[in-house]
Amino acid sequence: MKRQEEFVKGKVSIVTPVFNGEAYLPQMLDSVLAQTYQHVEMILVDDGSTDGTPRIAERYREKFETRGYEYRLIQASHKNASAAINQGLPYVRGEFLIWPDSDDVLEPESIEKRVAFLQKNPTYNCVRSLPYYFDAETGGSMERGERQGDLSDEALFWNILEAKTYVSCGCYMLRSHCFFAIYQDRHIPEYEVGQNFQMLLPFMYHHKCPTIREKLYGVCVRRDSHSRKALTETEEGNRYAGFEDLIDDIAAICEINDQESKNRIMRWKLGRRCNLSLKYDRKERAIKAIWQMHKVEGSKGTKLIEAFLWVFIRNTWMGRVLRQALKLFKG
Fold first, then answer.
1. Bigger pLDDT: 292 or 179?
2. pLDDT per residue over 56-105, tens digit each?
3. What is the CATH number of domain 6-221?
4. Rounded to an integer, what distance in angstroms lies between the CA atom of residue 186 and that of residue 215?
5. For the residues 17-37, what does the mean pLDDT come to?
6. Sign of the C-alpha dihedral, residues 71, 6, 94, 207?
7. Angle at 321 between CA 320 and CA 324, to 5 degrees
8. What are the two backbone dihedrals, phi and then psi, of residue 105, each rounded to the nearest 5 degrees?
9. Element (DSSP H or E) covering residue 181
């Protein structure tokens, strides 16, 4: 583990994994080159691409050198995004760490404004900006893809886990020494699902994160992206199970042992299981998840009956009327 003073003061390390990104990688790298901040190192990890990504990535080496930015290209065998990030983490030397996706973009002042905030507010070890969303094909703006939540709330662990606020990875900037105090071997848990939960949740469990209320990071919405790809019921079930295993791993890293928090994690799991079961009209599985949630929550019988009733009427005309009524009521 590097001591805090061995991270280069003022430098920002950017770690980005990319897989078959020839169509969109240039816009991300161009957005890095357009930054107003001067002290940057770019660590790009090619996760075994089979298209023209390596050629494009190599073409940018001279552009980064001309800009005065350090540039490191790492070639790895194809595995997954979290494994690719692990290939880059040992090379991080900056005081600050960000990890934008390879198809997203940074606004020109994105890095400078976040660094300025952390330098001005040394009691904080991380900060985030707001995201905006754009269509990959047209470049046009799109509606917000994630909830913003209460932007005054700085305790984000549960908000991120329970999807009450956005994950958009490139919005977050962390102090490197705090991040590597958690992952002293510079290695996050590797799963086929996720990489942002591994990067964010243990950090947010220990540190408060304020929000700069400016849209400094653009999220590219691609219909063919891994997160939006249509899955079979079995594939989606495996994906959900993978996230459950990942959260158990993260809970162990955070040393979450109190019963209230463990119950809250279990409610998160059961809620997802119920929603997945309802999506595929698996009523028996949904009822089982609701019953288990009832035992965890100790909810009253009337609430349990309402939940069971909803399983059977949700896809009927009565369920549709109730959903519409709720939308009108919420206004």
1. 179
2. 999 999 999 999 999 999 999 999 999 999 999 999 999 999 999 999 99
3. 3.90.550.10
4. 30
5. 97
6. positive
7. 85
8. -140, 150
9. helix 176-182
Strand pairing of 94-98 and 8-18?
parallel
Q: Which residues pair with 45 in a beta bridge?
A: 17, 74
Q: How many CA atoms lie within 13 A of 296 on its CB side?
A: 19
Phi, psi for 212 (deg, rounded to 5): -80, 120
- Angle subtended at Cα 169 by Cα 246 and Cα 179, rounded to the nearest 5 degrees: 70
Query: Residue written as tokens 């490197």?
Result: 176
- Residue 52's contacts (CB-CB under 8 Å, 6 or more residues apart) are 22
If you count them, how many residues does the chain have? 331
Nearest residue to 280 via CA among 314, 250, 252: 314
Give the per-residue pLDDT at 50: 97
Report the pLDDT averaged over residues 261-268.
Answer: 92
* The pLDDT of residue 143 is above 90: no
Lowest mean pLDDT among 106-115, 214-223, 312-321: 312-321
Strand-pair category, 105-106 with 211-221 = antiparallel
Contact partners, residue 168, CB within 8 Å, separation at least 6: 104, 131, 146, 217, 219
Name the pLDDT band for 279 (thresholds 50, 70, 90).
confident
Distance of CA 302 to the CA centre of its chain: 37
Rg, the chain, Cα only = 21
Mean pLDDT of 18-29: 97
Q: What string of DSSP letters covers 244-270?
A: HHHHHHHHHHHT---HHHHHHHHHHHH
End-to-end CA distance of the chain, in Å?
A: 53
Q: What are the extents of the domains in the chain?
A: 6-221, 233-330
The structure tokens listed for 231 are: 């899955």
